[in-house]
């Protein structure tokens, strides 16, 4: 149970490539960050050495192979820095299929997880959970407000998250722009995509009188279209942002956190407070809550409902894009990252009360903490299942959510 | 020209093969739930996964006979439908949609997880469980047969034959049910739940029955798929497949007995034709490789389905055979 996040992580997707077979890997742990100059030896099935390489400054290594077959990868433990040890054996035998780039994982142990007993680990997970929950909340505010103002359950909201993350990736990695600037640009892209959603699709559909169920299926279609379009354009790989991968974790006594994660928490808190202030104090924020509460009443008291909905879409798109960048920062950028987050967003929004902005906030925070803390008892790779289970339990106990009112369930 | 004929033949085979049967059975199930009862089950693929793995686990891991495995799969689907229906059927339609899609994704993640590996073999999945079934074929299954320019193995033909029989029997069952009083109550629930309730019918029980029946069809579809491919891998059961089945249903026409069947055949034909055609165009250099590579073609089908779903819902929600008045659903 201690191997996740440690060791030589295999983040290179095993996509078929015509050029030839290759073994790759990254030597890093969450506390030490990437480890440089570790010797990796690759030997064939007969024990003959094929190549011996050292990891670069990002901890990465790769070896081109003469052909498919069985290979043994050995890591020189003498090159590991103090405090980092092997979790198991120092070598691994893998079978490489024809034309494949295969990633190799050798487990490393840096004492950051499980050390110091369950109490400390719980605090560490709580902090991780709060970071994750804030991120879900940011993406989910738009989802909830869109539902509140238009009644649409938008299954394509996850793709707004992915679009933000991928846009920032292209600007940051391909364009060589600083990630902060890239994030702002990605938020602009997100707002534009949100506006396009409303103007090109949903407003005409509302005008046609399309039913809510039909609109829901349309949003599913849009989600499929965008998700697989992103996969064709971006590919099936997962890649980090430039200069931000695997940063060294800083020790805060009872928990450790990378600077990127700390920045993510601070940004989320600031943005969410700003959103709350906007909803509470500004004219457009009050209008949003009014439309959410009772659309007809809002329209008859002189609020331009369509304008409010457009602003909600733009704000939702920008926030989702920001959430996507922060998710890409901690988990790398992937084509289906938004869809996977969408289900947790739904869990958060349902828990908080569908259609209420503050409900989305509270609910998402609880879901984030729950998902991370659940790894105390369940394995890491099924932690999302816990979140989805929570969603179903909420539906049994209190379907209207914490802050929702009963009439919405009907 | 020969290429075009070949692409048409390949597409035709796929419209008659086990994949079309898979989507037809999934769509028949969705038709009962969505078309007749107005229930939004977005997790149909989970029922299919339980059906497929019901056989796979029973035969490969527990060593019990194939037909007992079929019963295990069907029972698992019934249990899942009951578990899903209990909390969500009293709620508004979109809650059921969210809960079912979350369940489908959660179950897939669970089946492919490391902790489930002793039972499901994790991401590698199970294989070698369909021998008993293939052995029942009345002809030589190792030989290849040529039909209308396409080549079928004896096993494929046998799976397709039994599969289409299942589709026909399923369609007949749906036809009979929807003519019965039970079917009329179901359709009235779709139109006006409160009216049905005021007539003293237990709406909840009817909805649950529809959910279970549709789930059983989903499980049968998953079994045909698992037996057809000869393997059960969790990642074959991606949730996008649920929406392929929705596209098939809406294309053919919801709330029509043959809508899902015809829809699945047409959909598979279009998708396979587009697939083969695009690969040909890439191989011949008509489409430059840096615009679209042949590894990307597999994703094109989901893009097509996404566009198709949107256009159908917006411009022709009744599909080919449907009645527009019957499919103008609204959230309740």
Describe the structure.
The complex is a heterodimer of chains A (410) and B (332). By secondary structure, chain A is of the alpha+beta class. Helix content of chain A is 54%, strand content 13%. In chain A, the strands form four sheets. In chain A, strands 1, 2, 3, 6 and 10 form a five-stranded mixed β-sheet that branches. A four-stranded antiparallel β-sheet of chain A has the order 5-4-7-9, with no helix packed on it. Chain A starts with 7 loop residues before the first strand and ends in a 13-residue tail after the last helix. Chain B has 332 residues and is mostly helical. Chain B has one domain (2-327): ABC transporter involved in vitamin B12 uptake, BtuC (Orthogonal Bundle). Chain B is built from 15 helices and four strands. Chain B has helices at residues 2-16, 18-36, 44-61, 66-88, 93-111, 117-120, 131-134, 154-179, 181-191, 193-198, 203-229, 240-252, 259-283, 297-315, 324-327, and strands at 126-127, 144-147, 150-153, 231-232. A two-stranded antiparallel ribbon of chain B has the order 1-4. In chain B, α1 (2-16) runs antiparallel to α13, α2 packs antiparallel against α11 and α3 (44-61) runs parallel beside α5 (93-111). Chain B is globular, with a radius of gyration of 20 Å. The mean pLDDT of chain B is 89. Classes of the chains: A alpha+beta (410), B mainly alpha (332). At the A-B interface, α4, α9 and α11 of A face α4, α5, α12 and α14 of B. Chain B: The chain crosses the membrane at residues 15-32, 39-60, 66-86, 157-178, 210-228, 240-258, 297-315.
């Amino acid at each position: 149970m201690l191997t996740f996040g440690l060791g030589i992580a295999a983040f290179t997707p095993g996509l078929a490539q015509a050029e030839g077979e290759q073994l790759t890997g990254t030597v890093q742990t969450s506390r030490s960050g990437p480890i440089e100059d570790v010797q990796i030896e690759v030997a064939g099935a007969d024990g003959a050495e094929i190549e011996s390489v050292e990891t670069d400054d990002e901890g990465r290594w790769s070896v081109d192979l003469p052909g498919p077959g069985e290979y043994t990868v050995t890591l020189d433990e003498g090159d590991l820095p103090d405090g980092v040890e092997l979790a198991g054996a120092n070598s691994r035998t893998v079978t490489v299929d024809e034309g494949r780039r295969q990633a190799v994982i050798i487990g490393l142990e840096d004492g950051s997880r499980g050390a110091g007993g369950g109490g400390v680990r719980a605090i560490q997970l709580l902090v991780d959970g709060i970071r994750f929950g804030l991120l879900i909340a940011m993406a989910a505010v738009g989802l909830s407000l869109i539902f509140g103002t238009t009644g649409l359950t938008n299954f394509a909201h996850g793709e707004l998250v992915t679009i933000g993350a991928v846009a920032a990736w292209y600007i940051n990695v391909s364009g060589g722009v600083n990630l902060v600037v890239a994030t702002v640009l990605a938020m602009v892209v997100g707002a534009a995509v949100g506006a396009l959603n409303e103007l090109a699709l949903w407003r005409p559909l509302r005008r046609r009188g399309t039913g809510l169920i039909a609109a829901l299926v349309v949003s599913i279609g849009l989600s499929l279209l965008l998700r697989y379009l992103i996969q064709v354009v971006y590919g099936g790989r997962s890649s980090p942002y430039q200069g931000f991968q695997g940063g060294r974790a800083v020790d805060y006594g009872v928990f450790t956190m990378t600077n990127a994660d700390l920045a993510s928490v601070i940004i989320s808190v600031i943005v969410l407070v700003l959103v709350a202030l906007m909803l509470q104090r500004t004219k457009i924020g009050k209008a949003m809550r009014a439309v959410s509460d009772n659309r007809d009443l809002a329209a008859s008291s002189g609020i331009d409902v369509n304008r409010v909905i457009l602003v909600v879409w733009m704000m939702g798109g920008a926030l989702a894009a920001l959430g996507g960048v922060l998710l890409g920062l901690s988990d790398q950028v992937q084509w289906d990252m938004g869809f996977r987050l969408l289900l947790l967003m739904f869990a958060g929004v349902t828990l908080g009360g569908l259609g209420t902005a503050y409900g989305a906030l509270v609910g998402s925070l609880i879901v984030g903490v729950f998902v991370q803390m659940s790894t105390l008892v369940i394995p890491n790779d099924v932690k999302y299942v816990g979140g989805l289970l929570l969603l179903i339990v909420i539906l049994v106990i209190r379907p209207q959510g914490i802050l929702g009112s009963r009439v919405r369930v009907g | 020209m020969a290429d075009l004929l070949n692409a048409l033949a390949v597409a035709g085979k796929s419209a008659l093969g086990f994949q079309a049967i898979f989507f037809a059975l999934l769509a028949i199930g969705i038709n009962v739930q969505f078309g007749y009862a107005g229930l939004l089950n977005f997790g149909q693929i989970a029922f299919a996964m339980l059906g497929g793995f019901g056989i796979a686990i029973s035969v490969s891991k527990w060593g019990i006979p194939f037909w007992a495995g079929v019963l295990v799969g069907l029972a698992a689907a019934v249990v899942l439908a009951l578990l899903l229906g209990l909390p969500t059927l009293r709620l508004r339609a979109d809650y059921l949609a969210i809960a079912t899609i979350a369940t489908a994704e959660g179950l897939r993640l669970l089946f492919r997880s490391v902790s489930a590996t002793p039972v499901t073999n994790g991401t590698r999945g199970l294989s070698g469980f369909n021998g008993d079934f293939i052995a029942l074929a009345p002809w030589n299954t190792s030989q290849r047969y040529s039909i209308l320019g396409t080549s079928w193995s004896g096993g494929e033909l046998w799976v397709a034959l039994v599969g289409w029989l299942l589709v026909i029997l399923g369609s007949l069952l749906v036809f009979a049910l929807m003519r019965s009083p039970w079917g009329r109550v179901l359709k009235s629930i779709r139109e006006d739940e409160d009216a049905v309730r005021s007539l003293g019918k237990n709406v909840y029980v009817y909805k649950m029955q529809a959910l279970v029946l549709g789930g059983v069809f989903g499980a049968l579809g998953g079994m045909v798929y698992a037996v057809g491919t000869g393997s059960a891998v969790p990642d074959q059961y991606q949730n996008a497949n649920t929406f392929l089945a929705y596209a098939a249903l809406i294309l053919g026409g919801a709330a029509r007995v043959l809508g899902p069947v015809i829809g699945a055949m047409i959909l598979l034909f279009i998708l396979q034709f587009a697939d083969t055609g695009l690969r040909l165009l890439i191989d011949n250099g008509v489409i430059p490789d840096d615009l679209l590579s042949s590894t990307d073609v597999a994703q094109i089908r989901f893009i097509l389905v996404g566009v198709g779903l949107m256009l159908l819902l917006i411009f022709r929600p009744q599909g080919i055979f449907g009645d527009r008045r019957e499919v103008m659903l609204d959230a309740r």
